[in-house]
Amino acid sequence: MGDYLSRIEAVPAVQRWGLVRDWIFTEPLPFFAEIRRERPVLVLPELTLAFRHADCMTILRRHHSFGVDLYKPKQGDYFMAQDDTAVHWREKSIMKSVLDREDIPAIRAWVGQATKAALDAGGGEIEAVRAITRGIPAGLVQRWFGFTDADPDRLIEWSYWNQQDAFWNQPFDAGFTRDPDGIVANRKRASLMLGLYLARLIARRTVAVKLGSDATDPVTRLLKLAFSDACRFDVKNVLFNIGGLLIGATETTSHTVTNALEYLLGNPDLLASARAAATLPDPALFDGHVDEALRFRPAFPYYFRTCHVPTVLAPETPHAVAVAPGTNVLAVSHSAMFDAAGFPDPEAFMPGRDQSDSFTYGQGIHACLGIAVAKVMVPEIVRQLVLREGLTAVSPPDYRGGRVPEAWQLRYR
């Protein structure tokens, strides 16, 4: 038995999740290597955790067997808190339609220009979280999603508290999260303020639509759809879904950009290779460096689901475990991306690697709604940063005791 498993079994069962959780965040790769080999499905009192690629795919792709029950108390009737329902099917389809993929090149160009302008304004030193990693996606929400008159600081705040509660304040986080009740209260307050803002925005856009507006932002297009009675999608649905655009875009982008850049800065040879790729005429040739950096340092090391149907994980192996309905499970996707069964030669940093089976943007019906936008916004922000000569971190990102970067001072020439 390996060192990690020995240490797990040496403590009372109620203390084991604390150990495992700490290793997931502080020494993931050696821990994952041992656990995939010796106990790829780990049963704890609070959770069952899966560490191999195939089992993580099973959990995330079989939405009838493993559902998003834990999102419901946080997100209510929003379609992402539902599995394969009519509402989910319809509203995700609508939202994909209004996020025109034809706009992706223009979005990338805007992100590049906005990031460059922020760095120019910094004059050689910048607090990157507010100005860049949160500031640029908040600006994108204003410019491309129709929140033109919004206060960017409020947009950031509303996204932050909703994501804090949904992703980092679950029952299995009890005892590890500071002031969980305070997070819930802040999420409710943020949601109320966001709702008030959106109600005013919708009222203004409704007048514009009635007067024949030819605007093409998602807010206007969703209102036109709602007023057309073409499908079961009314103004309340508009409010929920445009709020979801904001919440999903800002905080996740911040964490993802920070992780990718920090990993590159910590590996000078990779940074030099990424910088060389960043100077090429086709920016897409740079993107694989960010994809691989995020495989090594994902923003979310796991995804959580609740078992609905009796399921055997690691079937037909000596490690098979039967998971009963009602069990909360973690698909430890960071580990899965280092399983050679899914990623050949996983320890190698390979910018040209096929990322189809990656978990960076999720898998299954709950994969990132805005993946097409995210897959240009994230690498373009990182590209603009690595292009700056002499880019260094003054200190590591400041997490302020939580799980997301709150501040990060960078210097450059």
Automatic annotation (TrEMBL):
Family statement drawn from the similarity comment of this UniProt entry: Belongs to the cytochrome P450 family.
Name recorded for this polypeptide: Cytochrome P450
Domain of life: Bacteria
Residues annotated as transmembrane: none
Alphabetized InterPro entries for the sequence: Cyt_P450, Cyt_P450_B, Cyt_P450_sf
Pfam annotation, one family: p450
SUPFAM superfamilies in the record: Cytochrome P450 (SSF48264)
GO molecular function: heme binding; iron ion binding; monooxygenase activity; oxidoreductase activity, acting on paired donors, with incorporation or reduction of molecular oxygen
Source species of the chain: Sandarakinorhabdus glacialis
